[in-house]
Design brief:
The protein has three helices and no strands. The protein is mainly α. The chain has one domain (18-40, 47-101). The longest helix is centred in the N-terminal third of the chain and has 15 residues, at 18-32. The radius of gyration is 17 Å and the shape is flat.
Length: 104
Amino acid sequence: AAYDFQYVKGYRPVINDPEVTAKLREVLVEAFGEDAIQDGVPTMGGEDFSGFQQKAPGTFFFIGAGNAGKGIVYPHHHARFTVDEDVLPYGVKAFVAASLTLTA
């Protein structure tokens, strides 16, 4: 047997900046209340967001677009993945609040 091994360097891991994360958490608590915020757990999922973090510190977060009651339970990249569109206004509010509050 023979093979040709090629290693293609990919993206770095996404590691949220602690200072940005703390500030963003404050913004989101103010916008949505403490009960609406859940601290995430580390995952092994791949994400190219780390490319942006090479230019500026940042925080990757989820807006919670799943909804078991509506059968919206499949993960990203699954053939049956979909989004609970009722949550989209919350995502817009989160990004607007962050944009108006956080500065580079």
